[in-house]
Amino acid sequence: MSLFITFEGVEGSGKTTQIRRLKRYLSRKGIPCKMTREPGGSAIGEKIRRILLDPGHGEMTPLSETLLYEAARAQHVKEVIKPSLRKRVVILCDRFNDATIAYQGYGRGVDLRLAERLNRLSSQGIKPDVTFLLDCPSTLGLRRASYRNRMLKKEREGRFEKEKIQFHRRVRKGYLAIAKEEPHRVKVIDTREGEEKVFEKIRRIVDELLIAKGIGHRDIEAPNPKHQ
Ligand code: TMP
C-alpha cells in the first residue's frame, strides 16, 4: 500500500526543506519514496512550469493560468502519481490540488466550483492521505522567499512572489479555509516554531500513518508470540 503526502503553504513557508528532511528520514528507515512537485514532475509539466512562473508573462489571464496548472496536473497524475500509487512507496508531493483553490480560486478570484471541478478532472479524483499546510504570516513568508532568492543569487523574483501582499493574504486565507473544511486530511503547522519543531510534528504524524498503512513494518517490533 502506498502513502500520498502533499505539502502546501504560502511563499517562503519552508516546504522544500521539510520535504527533503522527510525524504532523508524515510530513506534511513528503508522506506522507498518518490519526491515530486507541481507544477512539474513530468517532462511536459516542467515545460508548463517554466511558462507559468516566467515573470515576463504578466498578461496571463487567471483562466489561462488555471488551465495550465490543471494541464500540468493531468500529465503529472497520469505519468507519476497514479503509477506510484500502485507501488509500495511514499509519495512526497510539493503542492497539489489545494494550491489551485488557494492561488487561483482565493488569490485570483476564479470561481471556486470551477476550480474544484477542474481539480477532480485532472487529478482523476485522487486525494492525498495527508496534507501538511506549512503556515506563517504572508509578510514573513515573503521576507523568507526574498532572502532565499538572494542567497540562491536568483536575478528575478517569480511571477507570484511579485504579487502584492493582499494577493498573498487571500492565498493564505484560502489555505486556512480548506484546512477548516477538511481537518482530518489537512494538518496546519505554524512554521514560526522553527524548522526542528515543524519537522518533529510532521514526523510524528507520518509515523502514525505508516503504522496504520502497514508500511515499513519491519521497523516496528514484531509482537512476542508468548504474549499472544
Ligand atoms: P513553488 O514555488 O512552491 O514551487 O510553486 C510554484 C508556484 O506556483 C507557487 O507560487 C504557487 C503556484 N501554484 C499555483 O498558483 N497553483 C497551483 O495549482 C500550483 C500547483 C502552484
Task: Give structural notes.
With 228 residues, this protein is of the alpha/beta class. It is 53% helix and 12% strand. The chain contains eight helices and five strands. Helix 2 runs antiparallel to helix 3 (62-85), helix 3 (62-85) runs parallel beside helix 5 and helix 4 (97-107) crosses helix 7. It starts with a strand and ends in a 15-residue tail after the last helix. The protein has a single domain (4-221), classed as P-loop containing nucleotide triphosphate hydrolases (Rossmann fold, 3-Layer(aba) Sandwich), CATH 3.40.50.300. It has a five-stranded parallel β-sheet, with helices on both faces.
How far the N terminus sits from the C terminus, by CA atoms, comes to 26 Å
Number of domains: 1
Category from helices, strands and their pairing: alpha/beta
**What is the share of helical residues?**
40-55%
Kindly report the oligomeric state of this protein: single chain
> How many distinct helices?
8
Unreliable spans are: 219-228
In total, how many beta strands?
Answer: 5
Assign the CATH architecture: 3-Layer(aba) Sandwich
* CATH homolog superfamily: P-loop containing nucleotide triphosphate hydrolases
Question: Which value, in Å, is the CA radius of gyration?
Answer: 18 Å
Topology pattern, helix = H, strand = E? EHEHHEHHEHHEH
Chemical compounds bound to the protein: thymidine-5'-phosphate
Strand content: 5-15%
Averaged pLDDT? 91
For this structure, the CATH topology is: Rossmann fold
The top level CATH class name: Alpha Beta
